[in-house]
Amino acid sequence: LSRVRGAPRALRGLAAGPGMHFGFQSVTEEERREKIYQVFESVAKKYDVMNDSMTLGIHRVWKDILVHKMNPCPGTLLLDVAGGTGDIAFRFINYVRSIRERQLQRKLKQHQNLSWQEIFENYQEDRFNSLGDSQVVVCDINREMLKVGKQKAQHLGYSEGLSWVLGNAEELPFDDDKFDVYTIAFGIRNVTRIDLALQEAYRVLKPGGRFLCLEFSHVSNPLLSRLYDLYSFQVIPVLGEVIAGDWKSYQYLVESIRQFPPQEELKAMIEDAGFFKVDYENLNFGIVAIHSGFKL
Amino acid sequence: DEEEVEEEEGWHQLYPGHIPTSPLPQALLAAGSAVMALYDPYRHDMVAVLGETTGCLALPNLRDKMKHHPEGYRILQERPRIRLSTLDMSRLQGLPDGSLGREYVRFLEDNKVSPDTRMPPKFVDDEELAYVIQRYREVHDLMHTLLGMPTNMLGEVVVKWFEAVQTGLPMCVLGAAFGPVRLSTRKLQVLATELVPWAIRSGLNASCVLNVYYEQRWEQPVESLREEIGIFPPP
Q1: Contact A86, A152 (CB under 8 A)
Q2: Cβ distance B34 to B48 under 8 Å?
Q3: N or C: which end of chain B has fewer CB within 10 A?
Q4: What is the residue-averaged pLDDT of chain A?
Q5: GO CC terms for this protein (chain B) (predicted)?
Q6: Are A249 and A43 in contact (CB under 8 A)?
Q7: A291, A218 Cβ separation under 8 angstroms
Q8: CB contact, 8 Å: B36 with chain A?
Q9: Which residues have C-beta within 8 Å of that of residue A27, sequence separation ≥ 6?
């Protein structure tokens, strides 16, 4: 069963008239939003398990790399859009916490002649500030995904500096110039109007703020591309059926990756939204790419 | 690469719900569903998928058996479906005790099951064979009724043995072989000494159960139907 690779250029990224794409189907904008909502509603509970199975755990490395690239310091305000089950948010908190701990240790090392009382007091005041005023807001359009994320947070013990907001990337419920960093990991592909999402990202970032996007992209190496296609179309939906009892959602996922703009096109779109110093970094030969831009 | 091709969902779709698959995904599905069905016995959908992906020899066989039998042939032509919407439940309840219709409804009520929970086929790449497997699924509850077996693990295993002999579907064979794994020793003993031998004998002796137009035989007494098909009375 051969699948047509690549899609009509006109449909990528923006709505071309009333016709849009949902995977390889053509639908209206409203239908697309509805279908995507249903996909994530149905996959939410098995989302993490499926990510691990489909990528053989490598998605964890990709997300680690994103947060390392972000290199947040205590005090950073992060908005994680389409953050659903919290993977980026938790990594952000861990990262900031460890930086903070190292800060504390360094501070205490410098004061070699502290009395036990003074050391105790130092620990006290910083114990309630383990994140150093950093905060992450997880915003997602899908209630089910947020639910799963909140449960995970509770289970793993994340509470400080974390908040969950139901919202649409195309119309964020936040004020202008609010955040230091905006991330969207494996989410922008599912947005119906990517241009609007990018404009919103620009709006809510502070001047000097950074936009980071982690997303599936295009593999240019022909041999690898064929293997990747084979794996995507012949194995991933099977995993979806066996693990989650849901072939269709994972077929959509694979098709939506093919529909998404490749690296250079996305870069151009990010620049159109007003970002500067836009660049991208391929991971695993372009299976995934991290795009970055600054609001200056 | 400016192709204007837009692949519609529905390309190659032979019946509603059909997901066309090439050999590699079919093989992976067969293996994956087998493992998952064993790992999590509550995944009935995996048992169904296993049946569909491994039935490539048994299903045509069954279809031919039906084609060469007058009643079976009619079933293939008319494609009756057993669903709550097509059954006249009040009429069946009103039938005399011991009749197929009355006992079938009793079975559904006692075990709190419904014919509507049968999964429609997805991975069978032939439209007629998809109906055959659908018919097999919908007739399963009638098998329980005819064999007098409840829907607990023990009863299900017995029915699977009968179906394995009757249909030759690998999924039934696997279910019959691995089903008993989760039973207690006492039950296993009953299974091995009485129930399974009876189920096998009945299965071999009986004519093809898919060749019976059950919807036209609600009034027939269960015992008479058993005799006609060739199922021995349950122990």
Answers
A1: yes
A2: no
A3: N
A4: 88
A5: mitochondrial inner membrane
A6: yes
A7: no
A8: yes
A9: A19, A20, A21, A35
Complex confidence, ipTM:
0.81
Most confident by average pLDDT, A207-221, B141-155, B198-212: A207-221
> Vertex A156, ends A150 and A157: CA angle to 5°?
85
pLDDT at A158 over 80: yes
Inform me whether the pLDDT recorded for A136 exceeds 90. Answer: yes
| Cβ within 8 Å, pair B25-A25 | no
The pLDDT of residue B92 is 87
Q: Which of A5, A242, A259 to mutate to test the interface with B (most CBs of B within 10 A)?
A: A242
Q: How confident is the model at residue A101 (pLDDT cuts 50, 70, 90)?
A: confident
Tokens of A204: 């809510």
Question: Is B6 within 8 Å of A6 when comparing Cβ atoms?
Answer: no
Across the interface, whether the CB atoms of A238 and B43 are under 8 A apart is answered no
Q: Report the DSSP pairing between strands A288-294 and A276-283.
A: antiparallel
* Measured distance CA(A264)–CA(B161) in Å, rounded: 60
Grouping H, G, I as helix, E, B as strand and the rest as coil, residue A186 is coil
Q: Are A149 and A140 in contact (CB under 8 A)?
A: yes
CATH of the domain spanning A38-103+134-295, picked from 3.60.110.10, 3.40.50.150, 2.60.40.10, 3.40.980.10: 3.40.50.150
Delimit the domains of chain B by residue range: 23-229
Q: Which residues of A17-47 are buried (b: 16+ CB within 10 A; e: fewer)?
A: eeebbbbbbbbeeeebbebbbebbebbbbbb
pTM attached to this predicted model: 0.80
* Phi and psi torsions of A281, nearest 5°: -130, 120
Residues of A with Cβ-Cβ distance to B5 under 8 angstroms: 4
Supply φ then ψ for residue A208, to 5 degrees: 95, -10
The 10s digit of each residue's pLDDT in A212-268 is 999 999 999 999 999 999 999 999 999 999 998 889 889 988 998 999 999 999 999
CA trace torsion A264, A266, A271, A274 (10° rounding): 180
Contact state of B6 with A247 under an 8 Å Cβ cutoff: no
Per-residue confidence (pLDDT) for residue B149, from 0 to 100: 87
Give the separation between CA A157 and CA A152, rounded to whole angstroms. 8
- Which tokens belong to A49? 């398990």
Q: What residue of B is the nearest CA neighbor of A21?
A: B6
CA A57 to chain centre: 16
> Which residue type is seen at B149?
M
What's the DSSP call for residue A256?
Answer: H
DSSP state of B232: P
pLDDT above 60 for B6: no
Per-residue pLDDT at A81: 97
**Which residues lie closer than 8 Å to A15 by C-beta, 6 or more apart?**
A29, A192, A193
Shortest CA distance from A252: residue in chain B: B9
